[in-house]
Amino acid sequence: MRPSGRKLDEMRDVSVEVGFTKHAEGSALIKMGDTHVLCTATIDERVPPFIKGSGLGWVTAEYGMLPRATNTRMRREAAMGKQGGRTVEIQRLIGRSLRAGVDRVALGERQITIDCDVLQADGGTRCASITGGWIALRLAVNKLMKAGDVITDPMVDPVAAVSCGIYAGQPVLDLDYPEDSEAGVDGNFIMTESGQMIETQMSAEGSTYSRAQMNELLDLAEKGISELTAIQKAACA
Description:
Elements: E1 14-18, E2 26-32, E3 35-44, E4 58-65, H1 77-80, H2 85-99, H3 104-107, E5 111-120, H4 125-146, E6 159-167, E7 170-173, H5 177-180, E8 185-192, E9 197-204, H6 211-236
Parallel strand pairs: 4-5
Antiparallel strand pairs: 1-2, 2-3, 3-5, 6-7, 6-8, 8-9
Helix pairs in contact: 2-4, 4-6
GO molecular function, one term: tRNA binding
Family: Belongs to the RNase PH family.
Subunit structure: Homohexameric ring arranged as a trimer of dimers.
């Protein structure tokens, strides 16, 4: 039995509120159970120097957690003078995941920055950030297309992410914190709606896993991604 009482292949409740902030070109508050992440998209008509003049667009991301997103207060990274390694890893993951679903030629030579701020954490913050980040990105691109600044839709395929793991010897979908902290195997799966894989992060956390178990987790991830991309498209409709 899972601590939450969910079935092995059951996602947490997922909700999305678009247009959550007034000023951003795209914004979405995504809630996956008790993990809540605010994702905003900002359009900049400049690109980083390393692609200037290439005609290609760029999508990048920044990620952070509020001090009381967790059960004890964390110091703000700004107060410490630098970002932690976990933060840098996650924001790079978000950026390259979202870029995988974008035609950068069609986007044109501009940059869209996705800011992911974790308001409350209960496991799966990077997955919620990617899933909500795609919604904010989609909304920002919609504005570009409506203004005629982009002619061909650069959003090739919805991108979403979900965690899966082996908890109490059973493969489970969408780990919350009690499961994540006790899982023998933990994985994050980033995929497109069409089933193409972008990134898979799997690691043994005290017990090894077999090829058959890995396949079971992949099957669960595909189910979760299918549900999440349907939610994404409904939110942006």
